[in-house]
Amino acid sequence: MTAARRATDTFVIAGAILVAWQVLHQIAGTTALPAPLPTLSYLLQLVPSARFAENAAATLEAFGLALLLACLIGLAVGVWMGAHRLSGAVGEPILVALYSLPKITLYPVVLLIFGLGLSGKVVFGAMHGILPIALLTMGAIRAIPSVYLRSARALHLSPWQTIATVLLPAALPEVFTGLRIGFTVTLLGVLLGEMFASKLGLGSMIMTDMSLAQSEDMITVALILFVFAAFANALLLWVEHKLQRRA
Amino acid sequence: MTRIGLIRLAVIAALIGGFELACRAGLVNHRIVIPPSEMAGALAALLASGAINSDIERTLGVVAVVIALSVTFGFAAGIAIHALPRLREALEPLFATYYAVPIFIFYPVLIAIFGLSPIPIVLIGVATAIVAMIIATINGLDRIPRVLSKVARVHRLGRIATAVRLQLPAAAPYLFTGVKLSVSYGFIAVIAAEFILSPAGLGRDISDAYTDFNNRRMYALILFLLIIATVVNTALHALDTRWSERRTGGRP
Q: Do A229 and B222 count as a contact with CB atoms less than 8 A apart?
């Protein structure tokens, strides 16, 4: 398929979405769903505003910390369960079961323990990210050919050296897939947390807009988050493909 | 049960037992977390009282509607998209990013359009679940062995007979993976939507109990939802494993 045809198709799809949006706007009315064009002009007004900057900074801070926490814990659990066979065999079904739970039900418990501020959001976001990162890291480490480990032993590498110089480089492409999925679900976790209970952040901004019937503001914030996540994912996918080709 | 299964059971029992002991010994503030045995007791009392029956019915009903819609329309859309290669190529990037964007942030937008009713909950549930079914259907149709179309021609099977007797069974394991994901995603989205904002339902119940500082009720409800989710997911996972075993003839 030529690049030109692909570009045309993408344009047609984007156009179809815009038309559907316009039609829905005609049915629902301006107060419920503003039309695409006014929303776009509102976007240019909203992004430079101090209110947006403050909330976006709050979300980014919580998301950054949550992702860091999820990566550290997820990688540690994944490496441990991948390298130690018995722990992996015992723990994998437990992790899978936890992964498919509706974690939002646990948010009140997180709030009771960590409070309503930044730390509650961070812990809740990290809870989402840890599991996919741990599961994919475990799978990656298990898939490493045993000859690598034998050569590590032949070279008398310490466990830490084995992890840093043999296990992680060999597992990197798949581990990166885990980090990409972790990125996505951690962002969702932080936003869910903000939507349920928070004074600051883009998630709470959407909820406030809804109760004040400020549809324009609400849909603009939702779109910004949508585009941010889509671009971040495309970038991470690109890195992932590079890593896979190198491997 | 295998040795590993026994160890797993022991680990889970030790975790719950340790948690119970920590609560009883006063290491955990009783006003924040109650011991697991009290959670179970509170849940038993709550179920026996019948106070949450209408919310259970409502939530599970909405989840059932979401799953039925997602599986039916996802299957149909998957067949249609598979039959139109150009459309499929155009939609491929959309499918690849779909689960990478937080679709759920559009839930308040849906409330603004449709009002506070079960409709936005059903819509956000379907939006979350249906794409997994579409992707699984396309995937399943791709994996139907080419030889089956020759078999159909040799036996002079009609279009419908080919579809029902050859193609559907060949694609079934992949379709089931789609159903499994739809159930899991649908359930999560409905609970989350009820939790954030909803006129009723189990998610709303937990959120209310949290706001009222009614910890016994809150933990009982959380326990109930986690048990249901675990039972459903485990059952689907077991079915899925059995099917993929049959597909590969018992080989892993």
A: no
